[in-house]
């Protein structure tokens, strides 16, 4: 069973066990009351989630002290649940499909996607720079906005993300 990170637990925020979530998912709408999630020590059932404040309450957590024990742990779902519960539009991909893809621009390998992070309303590819370019430019990682202007094609079957303008971002980093 392959686990997929949904969120990292932040600080306890209420007296009854509320906790702040730092989302790591591309589908925050899957955080609905009654759904079960995994964490390092078992299963948690989501009682409620506020998408504006990213505050969550779980059935199994009933005090601020219990919520504080979750801090910095990860909340997971399974790949099977994700594939069942999420419907993608044409040309959309799950983050876990893009992580590990090679990033190329005009045939040149720039690096490999090692993660994706949402900053504001934009997703950014976290690209580990190709070793040859690392040596030349001294830059280990750079971010590429996952928007049409920069990402021309995400070919998850061939494990490639074709970009335009990403090398300029790398060189300016």
Account of the 3D structure:
Helix content is 17%, strand content 43%. The longest helix has 7 residues, at 79-85. The model has no long low-confidence stretch (mean pLDDT 92). It starts with a strand and ends with a helix. With 173 residues, it is of the alpha+beta class. 25% of the residues are buried. The strands form two sheets. Strands 1-2-5-4-3-6 form a six-stranded antiparallel β-barrel. A six-stranded mixed β-sheet has the order 10-9-8-7-12-11.
Residue fraction in strands: 35-45%
- Low-confidence segments: none
What is the total tally of β strands?
A: 12
* Overall average residue pLDDT: 92
User: How would a crystallographer describe the biggest sheet?
Assistant: 6 strands, antiparallel, barrel
- Helix percent reads 10-25%
Biggest β-sheet: strands ordered side by side in the sheet? 1-2-5-4-3-6
Any idea what the radius of gyration is?
Answer: 18 Å
Tally of contiguous helical segments: 5
Distance between the termini: 38 Å
What structural category arises from helix and sheet content?
A: alpha+beta
């Amino acid at each position: 069973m392959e686990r997929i990170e949904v969120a990292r637990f932040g600080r306890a925020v209420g007296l009854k066990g509320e906790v702040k979530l730092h989302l790591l998912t591309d589908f925050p709408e899957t955080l609905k009351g009654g759904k079960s999630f995994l964490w390092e020590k078992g299963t948690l059932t989501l009682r409620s989630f506020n998408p504006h404040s990213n505050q969550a309450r779980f059935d199994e957590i009933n005090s601020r002290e219990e919520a504080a024990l979750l801090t910095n742990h990860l909340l997971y779902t399974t790949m099977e649940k994700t594939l069942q519960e999420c419907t993608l539009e044409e040309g959309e991909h799950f983050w876990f499909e893009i992580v590990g893809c090679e990033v190329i621009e005009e045939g040149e390998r720039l690096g490999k996607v090692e993660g994706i992070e949402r900053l504001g309303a934009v997703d950014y590819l976290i690209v580990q720079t190709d070793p040859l370019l690392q040596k030349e430019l001294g830059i280990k990682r750079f971010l590429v906005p996952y928007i049409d202007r920069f990402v021309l094609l995400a070919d998850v079957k061939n494990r490639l993300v074709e970009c335009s303008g990403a090398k300029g971002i790398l060189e300016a980093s």
